[in-house]
Amino acid sequence: MFSHIFVGVKDFDRALNFYRALMQVLEISERFCERDRPWAGWQSNPDPRPLFLIGKPFDGLSHDAGNGQMTAFLASRRDIVDKAYAVALANGGRSEGSPGLRPEYHQHYYGAYFRDTEGNKLCVACHVPC
């Protein structure tokens, strides 16, 4: 369905440190990092797409985090949701909802919500029973 998702950042190095730590927990491989541009991308496995990208906005204006926008990453197990949330907060993220069941979505939805170092809202969710 998606080719790529691009999330804007102001402080590239700070955001890069945050996402490198988070993607390691999620077992998502870094595909490239170009500090002079600046942007970085992580790829899906086994297919090369969709890509998740961070970087300075292409129009040259400053990044502003949107309200009502969220990128959600899929976790295969609930303990990965827990670990991703802890790593996000340990690397400068802030909580928007600790890990737990969200039965209002469906019976097995287990998710955590947080903002990255730039204010972008993220989620890590697991949809399978424990």
Shape: globular
Strand content: 35-45%
Q: Helix fraction?
A: 10-25%
Kindly report how far apart the N and C termini lie.
Answer: 27 Å
Structural class determined from secondary elements: alpha/beta
Oligomeric category: single chain
- Major sheet: arrangement of strands: 1-4-3-2
Largest sheet, described in full? 4 strands, mixed
Mean pLDDT: 95
Characterise the protein shown here.
The protein is α/β, with parallel strands linked by helices. It has helices spanning 12-26, 78-90; strands spanning 4-8, 29-34, 39-43, 51-55, 70-74, 94-101, 110-115, 121-126. The strands form two sheets. It has a four-stranded mixed β-sheet with strand order 1-4-3-2, covered by helices on one side. Strand 7 (110-115) and strand 8 (121-126) form a beta hairpin. The radius of gyration is 14 Å and the shape is globular. The two termini are 27 Å apart.
Question: What's the short version?
Answer:
With 130 residues, this protein is an alpha/beta fold. The chain contains 2 helices and 8 strands.
Could you list some keywords that capture this structure?
130 residues; four-stranded mixed sheet; single chain; alpha/beta
Provide the fold topology.
Elements: E1 4-8, H1 12-26, E2 29-34, E3 39-43, E4 51-55, E5 70-74, H2 78-90, E6 94-101, E7 110-115, E8 121-126
Parallel strand pairs: 1-4, 5-8
Antiparallel strand pairs: 2-3, 3-4, 6-7, 7-8
Helix pairs in contact: 1-2
